[in-house]
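Closing statement on the NDP sub-project.
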Amino acid sequence: MHNVVIIGSGCAGNTAAVYTARAGLKPLVIKGWEAGGQLSITSEVENFPGFPNGILGPELVENMKQQAERFGAEYMDGAVSEADLSKRPFRLKVEDQWIETRTLIVASGASARWLDLPSEQKLIGHGVSSCATCDGFFYRDKQIMVVGGGDTAMEEANFLTRFGRNVVLVHRRDSFRASKIMLERAQANPKIEFIMNTAIEEVFDLAQNTVTGVRLKNLVTGETSMRDVDGLFIAIGHIPNTKPFVGQLDLDPDGYIVSHGGARTNIHGVFHAGDVQDRVYRQAITAAGAGCMAAIEAERLLEAEGH
Ligand code: NDP
């Protein structure tokens, strides 16, 4: 029986682990499929206070983990596939094992959204990627396409010009969601070409098990066209990782946890932290702050209950 189980090992989960470990609660952190969270797939982090020269995302998150371990936090591989939050202790299934805990901090973050085309899905890892920092390196002097119109798409397109012969950014509308500064930076980059009002209909070539091109459709004229591509990067946002909690935790229509004040969820003893609840700020530092809030709430509840 654990005092605190933390689901997720990104900024939010690690910060919750530092705080609950320092409080002597011996937290168990279930790392999740994407250990280290989104920071583990970023390059340079320049906006986390305390690092005047920036720090690499994977290094920052590893530092946090080591800090938590120093105070007695335990980390476990695997992800939660089922949860029973109907009564305390809560029960969580990780692979074949059920884990029991008095309090739970859900810091399971959000994962990349895909176009959900069958051809795209089959070619993930074979030319289709959701992470420029992870996979950009493989497309040196190749033709790269980025899909999306938000800050992530701009950032990835810019980053990928370091590798690709050219980068084509495809967006489904004629205006962008991206912030002015990120958009202007991309527009000023001579290696980026913009294709607007356009969707990807199919990714080729399944027969060769590698990306060779895409069929595009202009959403205004209905015209379709082919385009040669070696690397296709999907940058169309994220989906919160809340599947095991459907029907138990209050979720909004997009699946994000609904906050019941502070770090509280609708279930007494279950707290939220980070991107799994936050669709607005989504920053490393706000996730860390949220992890701290959840830890303090869990700690106070356990203390009040005499644990
Ligand atoms: P956003 O939700 O902001 O943007 C997603 C983009 O993908 C939109 O342009 C959207 O189009 C498009 N899209 C969504 N679904 C589809 C689909 N099925 N097919 C085609 N296009 C689709 O997500 P981001 O990941 O870009 O950004 C998330 C948050 O992170 C934002 O708040 C952003 O500001 C922040 N961020 C900040 C950065 C920085 O400051 N350095 C870097 C990266 C992200 P449409 O516009 O038509 O809806």
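The CA atoms of residues 164 and 216 lie 20 Å apart. With this model delivered, the sub-project is considered complete and its resources will be redirected to Aim 3.
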